[in-house]
Amino acid sequence: MGKIEWAMWANEQALASGLILLTGGIVGVAGQFRGWQFAAYAIAAGVFVCLLEYPRSKRAKGTSVERTGQYCFTVCVKSFGPLTRNYYVRAFLHAAICVPGGFMLATVLGCVCLGIASIIYLAAAIRGEHWEPIVPRKDTVRPPPADIKNPPQNPPPRPPPETRRKRVEDLEGAAYDNPIPVKD
Amino acid sequence: MVASLRSWVANEGGKHFVLGWISILGCVCVCVCVDPVAGGEHLALYEDLPAVLHWTAVSLPVQDAGGMCISRASASVLNLNCSLVLLPMCRSLLTFVRGTHAVSSRETRRLLDKSKTFHVACGVSICIFSVVHVSAHLVNVVNFSVSYSDDFPALNLARYKGEDPKLIILTTIPGVTGLFLVLILFLMFTSSSYCVRLFNYEIFWYTHNLFIVFYIILMVHMVGGALKYQTNIEAHPPGCLTANQSSTSQRREDEERRCGEEAHFQPHYPQTWLWVSGPLCLYCAERFYRYIRSSDPVTIVTVIRHPCDVVELRMLKKNFKARPGQYVVLNCPGVSSFENHPFTLTTCPTEKKETFGIHLRVVGDWTERFTQMLLPQPRMDLEILPMVQQRRYPKDGWTGFRLQRLYFVWVCRELQSFYWFSELLCALHHKLWQENRPDYFNLKLYVSQKDNLQSMSEEKYRPLTSRLLVGRPRWKLLFDEIGKTNKHKRVGVFCCGPKGISKTLHKLCNSARSSGTTFEFNKESFG
Fold it and tell me: Basic and acidic residues bias: where (chain A) (predicted)?
């Protein structure tokens, strides 16, 4: 159990919670239930959480798999520097965001799920994890060695015509067999 | 790449057929539950709803009835999926079924191999329909609160008119159990993503084992439920008039439609246990069987260290039978009591030699600690508890099998890796040459790392070095070549490797071929 990265799980949970908050908010606003203002807030909060959590962090050791099209989100999230790098900030941010969702029935579930994600982020932060952006690796294109550029100018060396001519009396000693007869 | 119909049917047809059939079953369930005239017993529920006590349901506000219909329909689909989701995980049972002569068709065996895909499909359906079910119930709970009926107090879920819906959820059994079910489902779903399974398998495994709590709560979810049916439908038909009511029509019609007695309601018994208990008992029996089988200890006979961090382990266990292509799951209590790791068998026990072997690569912390325990002093008193689960049919032996030719393509990063099986490959090659079947086994070795090329200088490994190519294989050309030399035949492709190669091969297998060869794609994955 030593090398578990809790932040990866918390990230999945937070993304799912963002979607649940968004869905609950849409249901609340569309149904015009009592307290629909909380539902409108939940829509905005859900979108914000999804945008923040979409770019996956780079793993401390080993290969990282990024989500489709996450590079532009990585750039945005990276620009906030230590605010987004630190998981303590994320944990308290999610805890604060989820509270207003608890006041309306449609968004209660999103609130609870985001709360759980916030707890896991806190655990990840205590263990010293932090968010690292996944930067696409630029493969260094090595230039080919200089002598490869020019093809050979001369044909390969061949033995003189006397040796090349097919000697019927001594096939074993012939240099090689010519498919086309040799002309001087 | 144009997908050919025949190849697509060979590779994808089976699983799509099964999924389609299950969807049809689900639709049938939905229709049965949403049947608007399912006896008159449920019309009473519509009567509870506000505004009108007309005797047909048609004039009632549709959106109130709709919530109950949708939640009931999604509940029945959930029942079906929760019962089916456990079946693909009964691996010993599937192994047994797959190995019997009753399953003689290769298509059925390949379909059984896709059991994990089916499990995932059922899991995803559970999540989707839970969302539908929860949304519909949220609407219902608001309605119960708003539409509290004084005429039929037994039908109300709310205790008084305008009761806070959140309170209804938190103080009724369906509400509280529903909340816990959704939370467990949320934890299980978020830990089942590909990344978490690949990099943090323990999180996935321990969270997924919460399924037993999920099922226990599921079975009591409907206790004291909202859905009631009327028991005295003859004496009090829907829409009949009570003593102090009269309708606008003639008085003699009023006489006929008087209610004999008050309506009596009975809640539905929870039906989930009918669906779920069978597969749950089967799965528990399966886990118990696996535990019993694994209680016999195993002795490690030989430990061989190979280059590139690979260790070969030869073991001995009483009454152990296995066929090539199967894998074992190792548990070493000295390293970790609860971790079980699968390894494909590289040597199977035969009549002459009873030992079986695996090759394991030191990649993570479990393998590292395991090999540290084994080397340099291998302890013979270690208890290893293997289990065998059959994955696919054997590909060794050429008598009695329909295998006509084998193409073995092996891609490694470093040349030293080929030493893991160099003896076996050379021995096989020589044996086939002696038997005058040189084209039976076609070997192609690829070294993908182009820098720092080494060489295999030993003369005895000549069959390997002469078949060695530098760089990654060009799969399309390989497939074209194999297609041309095996026209109008069925070629089975068995892939064991990373996802990238697996996806490429899968696409190539599905694409059209002028040679008329069908490529059937199979892959081995433990994640």
Answer: 161-170
